[in-house]
């Protein structure tokens, strides 16, 4: 069976086809939830944020012009929703609460525990980054965006995206006990 393109699904969803909208949601819900979880570091808030992103997507779907890949456009919406989240929650957010992450795909419990500890350490270290740097790290390592994609999504120059990433990596090194956690943690989160 073939997979329908995002553009086909969007066109069908705009015509009122519910199954096309649900396929689009299913295609991106895991990525958006993981993105939101890494940004807000709280499963309940991540779920709420993901729902806000999909509501915003539903309301703005007709505005998608295809000038960039749909995924980039979707994560730009997610970026703005994350900024709104930080503006609303900033005074109440605690950097001390780091939920444990479970890796259900791992068959080796010891490796799972190691990955979990490294992921938690990385997530905790990311909470010390300014929001813009956290977004650049998220887009580069977790969404595998190019610097050009990052600059388009965040409305900054490519050089600014690079400098924010390198600044963020320097700050992460200060908060992590072992530099290897950055390499291993990003690989498995």
Automatic annotation (TrEMBL):
Residue stretches in coiled coil: none
UniProt keyword list: DNA-binding, Sigma factor, Transcription, Transcription regulation
GO MF assignments: DNA binding; sigma factor activity
Similarity annotation: Belongs to the sigma-70 factor family. ECF subfamily.
Lineage of the species this protein comes from: Bacteria, Pseudomonadati, Pseudomonadota, Gammaproteobacteria, Alteromonadales
Native source species: Colwellia psychrerythraea (strain 34H / ATCC BAA-681) (Vibrio psychroerythus)
Domain RNA polymerase sigma factor 70 region 4 type span(s) in chain numbering: 121-172
RNA polymerase sigma-70 region domain span: 24-90
GO biological process: DNA-templated transcription initiation
Protein name: RNA polymerase sigma factor, sigma-70 family
Signal peptide: none
